[in-house]
């Protein structure tokens, strides 16, 4: 995929560092900054001037290559860079791919900072604000929500029609379903990472939407619910499908208070494909 065009002109002579951008984020995010947090610099010199900012869901090697090709050397990523929840490099520091990725970042003078905990803590939650806009569901969302439970009341449709609409709007290709494709649905909920959250949400809705849940938990729980006679379904998205739009939202938010350099969202994209 070619780099996306950046949505601001480059300003000759302008200078801002990654650390200064992060200081503005801390000021503007609207919640107290807490530690410990995942929201830290992962690699690079935060005090060197940056050429542009890319927001993304996952700082994959391919994403980093597209970012630097587009002229942006500061990447704000929602999820990890080095394949573990906390980017624990001590476990991978001798891995050839780890060193290849580090060498690429250092050669191109790139800086990577993670923006996860406090973007979720922002009100409204930045990730799900992006999801709602991507789906056109701003007016369907219940005002009562927690980090891992969001309910929606949508116009009645079938499970299959809902899935196709979601697949198109979220630009995902590896969605999987549990349930009758003809099931009529109106009540939906995002469920969290764990089976307890799915169990709590399912009685109130027709469809659970999960994108970071272990397969032997949510999918099997919903399958058993169906076998017991309940009219339920599950939509399993790739992780990107559930959260990528929230980092597009992040880029738009950043442009309201960072004007010195271009800011662009680049999707990391669905890593999976399915045979026809």
Describe the structure in your own words:
The protein is of the alpha/beta class and 276 residues long. It has 2 domains: 129 residues, NIF3 (NGG1p interacting factor 3)-like (Udp-n-acetylmuramoylalanyl-d-glutamate--2,6- Diaminopimelate Ligase, Chain: A, domain 1); 102 residues, Udp-n-acetylmuramoylalanyl-d-glutamate--2,6- Diaminopimelate Ligase, Chain: A, domain 1 (3-Layer(aba) Sandwich), CATH 3.40.1390.30. It contains 9 helices and 11 strands. Strands 5-6-8-9-10-7 form a 6-stranded mixed beta sheet. β8, α7 and β9 form a beta-alpha-beta unit. α5 packs across α9.
Task: Give the gist of this structure.
Helix content is about 35%, strand content about 20%.
Specify the biggest β-sheet: 6 strands, mixed
Low-confidence stretches: 1-12
SSE string: HEEHEHEHHEEHEEHEHEHE
CATH homologous superfamily annotation of the largest domain: NIF3 (NGG1p interacting factor 3)-like
The domain count comes to 2
How many strand units?
11
Number of helices: 9
Regarding CATH, which class of the largest domain? Answer: Alpha Beta
Structural class given helices, strands, pairing?
A: alpha/beta
In one word, what is the shape?
globular
Strand percent estimate: 15-25%
Average residue pLDDT: 92
Helical residue percent?
Answer: 25-40%
Radius of gyration (Å): 20 Å
CATH fold name of the largest domain = Udp-n-acetylmuramoylalanyl-d-glutamate--2,6- Diaminopimelate Ligase, Chain: A, domain 1
CATH architecture group name of the largest domain: 3-Layer(aba) Sandwich
Distance between the termini: 21 Å
Strand order of the largest sheet: 5-6-8-9-10-7
